[in-house]
């Protein structure tokens, strides 16, 4: 009898799992067709030859990948490293890292501030952080553009106060991109930091003060290690979209200060070199994957100790 | 000096926090204020007027782009939410089983892949299909939007499901409700706030999208964001501010409702 029960259970279990596959099928198919699947096509295209007017010729070629790293002189066929690409990649990584650091500098105190409010008020502060986040990215970029343009708010105020005579050129510089990216991504840093800080056990801080720790030591040696998972999560959440920014550099960088995203677009627009664009896209995905991998490894290590 | 010593205080943190909030809202506030400027400049204030709202309202391109945006966002949000609800039911409240991790990572994948790469991938795929089938309607945009909205709709639904009490469904089953009845009369009503929250999140995300739309759209298929992106290259008048302000108000309204729907799921269970 117990054997029958076990068999029945096993059958029910198998049916349950089958049902669960049916239930998830629509989402899996939708994402497979219109989000993940096409990435494989990008990989395929990176190994084809460019067509004359965009698109590709159906012939195997490694030119796309070759062109990511090297450039061939049109006149004497000499091969040299593709400086332009390396410069843009390096710029993008630098800007994304700087954005992450700035978001951390402003986001950490902000998250800490919210986490130390009275519990009933916290959700209002959090709401205030989330509103700009749900505001269209383009509108936020446009808003930044207005504030920093030559006849914009900042320059007008500085001139009125007599601090400067002529407006400072801020728009269409790296500074503008950095400002815009920090502005846009700050909530992504604050939210995971808040989630960590909210769980912070203040008895530990009390203990540190009892042992004559200074405020700075409490911050660096007690609080920061305890919320490290939040810091890593926030940094990754900022770094990845910042690295692949397209709208911000386009609107605030004014077309000459490119980032990887704009370089990719160029290959599908004016450049008409789809295989190169595809290879650049794959490169970007690989960088993002490495960042994710770093996150998963570190979050796994520290997540355990933080809860212990 | 007389401030009481508090272990929670860190010097300067409150100041930085206030500065962050100020900086977050200053550009948006400026943008909204200049939407009401009567002059043609977006930098010098010349007096209060609603003329730019009027001019945006009479701009055929703006109206068409707005309608297209709303159309795409509504359809895509519904498709994404239905898929996400089913996927959430399939991936929660169970012991780990083979394929669970796969499903979970598939559903969240659109969040991880850089948007520009997805955009390029869809451009390649859809441009082929356009040649093969000759169809170049809004279907491509709706399909693309539905896909990247799934993880956003999935998040609140899954959260709601996980905080739900299993005992009610067990009770229904004990009272001889079949699987469908249990779902229809017990699970679904309890899950409803999560589904609505997911729907609204998906709607806002679709409405805001620039990058994927910019690459996937065929000629004459501008949505409001891609129309604005095109306009930003030219001389900008406060009409842009007016459009942005209306857009902002719409997002704000949706997010406020979302906020109240998704907070404290346990509270309204009782």
TrEMBL record, chain A:
Protein localization: Cell membrane
Keyword terms, alphabetized: Cell membrane, Membrane, Transmembrane, Transmembrane helix, Transport
Name the SUPFAM superfamilies on file: MetI-like
Ranges annotated as spanning the membrane? 21-48, 95-115, 124-143, 175-197, 218-243, 276-296
InterPro entries of this UniProt entry?
A: MetI-like, MetI-like_sf
The record, for Gene3D superfamilies, names: MetI-like
The family classification in the record reads: Belongs to the binding-protein-dependent transport system permease family. CysTW subfamily.
Record-given protein name = ABC transporter permease
Q: Which organism does this record belong to?
A: Mycoplana rhizolycopersici
From TrEMBL, chain B:
Q: Where is the signal peptide?
A: none
Record-linked PROSITE patterns: ABC_TM1 (PS50928)
Q: Does Transmembrane appear among the keywords?
A: yes
Compartment list: Cell inner membrane; Cell membrane
Which residue intervals define the domain ABC transmembrane type-1 in the entry? Answer: 66-258
Q: Which domain of life is it from?
A: Bacteria
Annotated TM spans: 12-36, 70-90, 111-131, 137-157, 185-207, 242-261
Classify the protein's membrane topology as the record does: Multi-pass membrane protein
Which keywords accompany this UniProt record? Cell inner membrane, Cell membrane, Membrane, Transmembrane, Transmembrane helix, Transport
**Which family does the UniProt entry place this protein in?**
Belongs to the binding-protein-dependent transport system permease family. CysTW subfamily.
Q: What does this protein do?
A: Required for the activity of the bacterial periplasmic transport system of putrescine and spermidine.
What is the name of this protein? Spermidine/putrescine transport system permease protein PotC
Q: What are the leading ranks of the lineage?
A: Bacteria, Pseudomonadati, Pseudomonadota, Alphaproteobacteria, Hyphomicrobiales
């Amino acid at each position: 009898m117990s054997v029958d029960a076990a068999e029945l259970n096993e059958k029910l279990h198998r049916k349950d799992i089958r049902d669960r596959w049916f239930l998830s099928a629509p989402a899996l198919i939708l994402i497979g067709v219109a989000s993940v699947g096409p990435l494989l096509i990008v990989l395929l295209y990176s190994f084809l030859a460019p067509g004359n007017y965009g698109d590709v010729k159906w012939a195997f070629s490694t030119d796309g990948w070759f062109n990511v790293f090297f450039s061939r002189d049109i006149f004497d066929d000499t091969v040299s490293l593709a400086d332009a690409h390396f410069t843009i990649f390096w710029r993008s990584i630098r800007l994304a890292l700087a954005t992450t650091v700035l978001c951390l500098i402003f986001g950490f105190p902000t998250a800490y501030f919210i986490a130390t409010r009275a519990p009933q008020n916290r959700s209002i502060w959090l709401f205030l952080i989330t509103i700009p986040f749900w505001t269209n990215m383009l509108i936020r970029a446009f808003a930044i553009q207005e504030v920093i343009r030559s006849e914009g708010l900042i320059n007008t105020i500085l001139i009125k106060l007599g601090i400067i005579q002529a407006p400072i050129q801020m728009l269409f510089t790296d500074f503008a991109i950095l400002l815009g990216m920090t502005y846009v991504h700050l909530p992504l840093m604050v939210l995971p930091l808040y989630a960590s800080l909210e769980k912070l056990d203040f008895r530990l801080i009390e203990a540190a003060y009892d042992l004559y720790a200074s405020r700075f030591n409490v911050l660096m040696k007690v609080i920061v290690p305890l919320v490290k998972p939040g810091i890593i999560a926030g940094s990754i959440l900022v770094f990845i979209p910042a690295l692949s920014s397209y709208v911000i550099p386009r609107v605030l960088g004014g077309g000459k200060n490119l980032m990887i995203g704009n370089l990719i677009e160029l290959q599908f627009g004016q450049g008409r070199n789809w295989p190169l664009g595809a290879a650049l896209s794959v490169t970007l995905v690989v960088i993002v994957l490495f960042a994710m991998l770093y996150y998963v490894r570190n979050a796994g290590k520290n997540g355990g100790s933080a809860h212990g | 000096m007389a401030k009481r010593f508090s272990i929670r205080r860190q010097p300067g943190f409150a100041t930085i926090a206030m500065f962050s909030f100020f900086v977050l809202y200053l550009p948006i506030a400026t943008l909204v204020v200049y939407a009401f400027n009567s002059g043609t400049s977006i930098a010098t204030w010349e007096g209060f007027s609603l003329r730019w709202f009027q001019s945006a309202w009479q701009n055929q391109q703006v109206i068409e782009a707005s309608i297209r945006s709303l159309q795409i966002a509504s359809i895509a949000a519904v498709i994404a939410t239905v898929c996400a609800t089913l996927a959430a039911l399939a991936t929660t409240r169970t012991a780990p089983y083979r394929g669970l991790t796969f499903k979970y990572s598939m559903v969240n994948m659109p969040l991880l892949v850089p948007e520009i790469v997805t955009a390029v991938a869809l451009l390649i795929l859809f441009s082929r299909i356009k040649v093969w089938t000759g169809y170049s309607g809004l279907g491509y945009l709706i399909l693309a939007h539905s896909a990247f909205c799934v993880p956003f709709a999935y998040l609140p639904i899954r959260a709601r499901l996980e905080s739900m009490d299993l005992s009610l469904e067990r009770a229904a089953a004990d009272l001889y409700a079949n699987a469908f009845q249990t779902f229809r009369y017990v699970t679904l009503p309890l899950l409803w706030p999560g589904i609505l929250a997911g729907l609204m999140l998906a709607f806002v995300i679709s409405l805001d999208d620039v990058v994927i739309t910019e690459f996937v759209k065929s000629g004459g298929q501008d949505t409001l964001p891609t129309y604005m992106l095109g306009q930003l290259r030219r001389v900008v008048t406060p009409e842009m501010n007016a459009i942005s302000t209306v857009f902002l108000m719409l997002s704000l309204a949706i997010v406020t409702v979302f906020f109240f729907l998704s907070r404290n799921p346990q509270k309204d269970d009782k």
